[in-house]
Design a protein that fits this description.
By secondary structure, the chain is of the alpha+beta class. It is built from 3 helices and 4 strands, in the order αββααββ. The chain has one domain: 2-Layer Sandwich (Translation Initiation Factor IF3).
């Protein structure tokens, strides 16, 4: 009987994690899409040099950073996928959200500075999956986007 109660509690937590995790993720994707539309005039390039024909009065380093953690359902789904091997698609949306959010934050900083262009954009990703005891309580990752913002004359 006790085993059934524990199994039931586990299934309830799994369903709660699935429902609330997906709702939160969908809400974040909608917010990202809305902000991407608002910031589409701030152009982002990976080119190392600025456009030769452009005249700019100022340049500054701009950075966007975000840390995104997994939800309970993603952890269980990834653990199951780890048993069988293959693509861990539940983490792909987490990675997509992280990269897009970092770029948006970088573009928002560029706009605050009056810039219309960010060049030499680079990305960094770091896993933050261990606590101080060396255990791995949950997967989270930091996403960093940075580049040089140019303010037109």
């Amino acid at each position: 009987m006790e085993l059934l109660i524990e199994l039931g509690a586990f299934l309830v937590l799994l369903v709660v994690g699935l429902v609330f995790g997906r709702a939160s993720e969908r809400r974040h994707f909608r917010d990202i899409e809305r902000r991407e539309a608002l910031l589409r005039d701030v152009l982002v390039f990976t080119e190392r040099r600025p456009p030769p024909d452009g005249e700019f009065r100022d340049a500054a380093l701009v950075v966007g950073s975000v840390v995104i953690a997994e939800d309970y359902f993603k952890r269980i789904a990834a653990a199951l996928r780890g048993l069988f091997g293959g693509r861990v698609s539940v983490y792909e949306s987490l990675m997509d959200r992280g990269r897009r959010e970092a770029v948006l934050r970088m573009k928002e900083e560029a706009r605050r500075r009056g810039a219309t262009l960010v060049f030499n954009v680079r990305f960094e990703t770091a896993s933050l999956s261990e606590d101080s005891s060396g255990r791995s309580p949950m997967f989270s990752a930091e996403f960093l986007a940075y580049g040089t913002a140019l303010v037109p004359r």
